[in-house]
Design a protein that fits this description.
Elements: E1 6-18, E2 23-35, E3 39-43, H1 50-57, E4 65-70, E5 73-74, H2 80-87, E6 90-94, H3 105-115, H4 120-133, H5 149-160, E7 167-171, H6 179-196, E8 199-204, H7 207-213, E9 216-221, E10 224-230, H8 231-236, H9 241-247, H10 251-254, E11 262-268, H11 276-284, E12 289-298, E13 301-309, H12 314-326, E14 330-334
Parallel strand pairs: 3-8, 3-9, 6-7, 7-8
Antiparallel strand pairs: 1-2, 1-4, 4-5, 9-10, 11-13, 11-14, 12-13
Helix pairs in contact: 3-4, 3-5, 4-5, 5-6, 11-12
Length: 340
């Protein structure tokens, strides 16, 4: 990143939910930096704490302890009036859109501006500009009930941009959408990030969303920060067990495995036209089974990964992995797969 200081800094952030009979630690000592202008992903399984984390960033959920430093200021310490002003600089979009059904799309986008005391004429002009940015200029006088899911989310994005935020928080913003619409919304978010230089934080449980638009990613597991890295590094070399769940294929995908040994290969697009596995079989005279293969596009680069079943014989298995490493392929012998 070219920025020298993060726009969001979480320091020892902890959130405990208490009831009469129990306490649940939703977030445990989270330390995280998010830099200005990046698209940052936060991923975790259901119940991992990722949505609680994003709601702590704008203090919709107040942390039990720790700091939320936004643009150099710890907003946890701010009085309500000052906090509300800061929140205007953090737009938010949700899984279920949260539009006002009795208002037109134009009126929905105007709403936060009018709520903040903006002139009505200026708010309408700004709303029209934002609807044009999200590709809905022709839907200004349409009500949400007449829109598709993707169109509703575009309105929600326009509304989130109405206060000229520095950060856009997206909490499972594509989870309710079909794959094609998801791709269109992610492309729109990437365009907004580049055009307006707005920092975007994407909360999701889908690795495909992270791979599509994010530069860096944090893995949340059972309320803890398991790993932070670039998306490319995470794909090539996941370090935590939580990260492996998102990167490695599941047992269901792999099917029954007759060997206790297998390895994951990672290679970039330059290897795509080379018959590496075929050459390895001929040169090493060792047969392997391909259990899984897939290609990914990460930040404009093409990567592939493959899972091979290794020979049970130690010497044969070593011959295979050594050959592949010699050819410049990233090879990681693994002894487990993701949960199905």
């Amino acid at each position: 990143m070219t920025e020298t200081a993060p726009i969001i800094q979480l320091r020892h952030l902890t959130k405990v939910f208490s009831s009469k009979d129990d306490e649940v630690t939703a977030l445990d000592d989270i330390n995280l930096d998010i830099y200005s202008g990046e698209i940052f992903g936060i991923i975790g399984m259901s119940g991992a704490g990722k949505s609680t984390l994003v709601r702590c960033i704008n203090l919709l959920e107040r942390p039990s302890s720790g700091q939320v430093i936004f643009d150099g200021e710890d907003i946890v310490t701010l009085p309500t009036s000052s906090l509300n002003q800061r929140r205007k600089q953090m737009g938010m979009i949700f899984q279920q859109f949260n539009l006002l059904m009795q208002r037109t799309t134009l009126s929905n986008v105007c709403f936060p501006m009018l709520l903040g005391g903006s002139d009505k004429t200026q708010a309408i002009e700004r709303a029209k500009e934002l609807l044009e940015i999200v590709g809905l200029s022709d839907k200004a006088n349409v009500y949400p009930a007449q829109l598709s899911g993707g169109q509703k989310q575009r309105v929600a994005i326009a509304r989130a941009l109405a206060t000229n935020p520095k950060v856009l928080l997206c909490d499972e913003a594509t989870s309710a959408l079909d794959p094609a619409t998801t791709q269109a919304i992610l492309s729109l978010l990437k365009d907004i990030n580049q055009r307006l230089n707005i920092t975007i934080v994407i909360i999701t449980h889908e690795m495909s969303v992270i791979e599509k638009v994010c530069q860096r990613v944090a893995i949340i597991d059972d309320g803890c920060l398991a790993e932070v890295s670039t998306v490319e590094e995470l794909f090539v070399n996941p370090k935590s067990a939580a990260a492996r769940k998102f990167i490695l294929p599941s047992e269901t995908v792999l099917g029954p495995i007759s060997s206790n040994r297998y390895c994951r290969l990672v290679f970039n697009g330059s290897y795509a036209s080379e018959p590496i596995i075929a050459n390895m079989v001929m040169d090493c005279k060792e047969a392997v089974s391909i259990l899984y293969a897939d290609m990914k596009s990460i930040d404009g680069k093409t990567f592939g990964h493959m899972v091979l079943q290794l020979p049970d014989d130690e010497r044969s298995a070593t011959k295979v992995t050594s050959y592949l490493k010699m050819k410049g392929v990233t090879v990681e012998e693994v002894d487990h797969v993701s949960e199905s």
